[in-house]
């Protein structure tokens, strides 16, 4: 597999509604669409999911562009790959920068599966032809959050995640649970708490949440193990897990009952599948997290979620959840809480070139 050309499209779209967490409010979303093109003109697509500023991780759209342009794309163009797994090995000489690596590695996997004329999920070893979808509620007030949850329930989403923080936790979850006593509900703290809040967090046990995601520090594994020993509710690790080694350490310490696997956060499919397999062997559940993505990344998330261990609904909502019009065709649709997995080659979607042009800030092409 020889890559002849790589195109980068930096795009920006306004969300239909602002998305709020204790870290801030996102009103529009910048991102990078990656195209890798082989000698026969077959194209594979990836997406850089870093945000414009480093509020979620240290990576940004700017740093991703730099690493792609100056380091990763030159490495790829000089190489001939037999299998996409070799891209991960090729990029291992570069420290961190997982979102940049994933953007390019995922595009290579899409291209490879199209060359085989097979759906990517089958190439990965996926078994699910239908996956369950979950949604994320993030709004400035309790009333608005409950309105969002009502909307998601009407649309059939099978699990709702609610953003919490020390200024909005117990009372928020209490009101939602009173309104929806049987809803599959989880909370996401985005590292808003410390071990000093342990009694406060334990109060949430009464609401029978599926899990509390990343309550403590973004790079912590050990303190989560102490918290998990003291809580009935399962902890899910997100930001803490950026590598296979992180996952192995977390499982050895008993730090969590779930791991949220994000392709961008762990550097692409090779690491994501390895973490999935490890968790399966150790009896820890996994699910696929989201990053307010555009349609390319959503399609990759669907492919990943077909693997056997992804038995808990992920953050994979309809394209129309966030965008007036996505950049892909067909757009992602959730019907009665489910997504039917495409049987088309690759990730099963193509770029809507007209829409892409409307939202593109600039495009750059790279070749040898």
TrEMBL record:
Binding-site list for Mg(2+): 188, 213, 238
Keyword Lyase found: yes
EC number(s) stated in the UniProt entry for this protein: 4.2.1.113
Lineage top rank: taxon: Bacteria
GO MF annotation, one: magnesium ion binding
Domain Mandelate racemase/muconate lactonizing enzyme C-terminal residues, every copy: 142-234
Necessary cofactors: a divalent metal cation
The keyword Transmembrane belongs to this UniProt entry's keyword annotation: no
One biological process term in Gene Ontology: menaquinone biosynthetic process
Pathway: Quinol/quinone metabolism; 1,4-dihydroxy-2-naphthoate biosynthesis; 1,4-dihydroxy-2-naphthoate from chorismate: step 4/7; Quinol/quinone metabolism; menaquinone biosynthesis
Reaction equations catalysed: (1R,6R)-6-hydroxy-2-succinyl-cyclohexa-2,4-diene-1-carboxylate = 2-succinylbenzoate + H2O
Record keywords, A-Z: Lyase, Magnesium, Menaquinone biosynthesis, Metal-binding
Active-site residues, record numbering mapped to chain: 163 (proton donor), 262 (proton acceptor)
Record's function text: Converts 2-succinyl-6-hydroxy-2,4-cyclohexadiene-1-carboxylate (SHCHC) to 2-succinylbenzoate (OSB).
Family: Belongs to the mandelate racemase/muconate lactonizing enzyme family. MenC type 2 subfamily.
Full protein name: o-succinylbenzoate synthase
Organism, as annotated: Rossellomorea vietnamensis
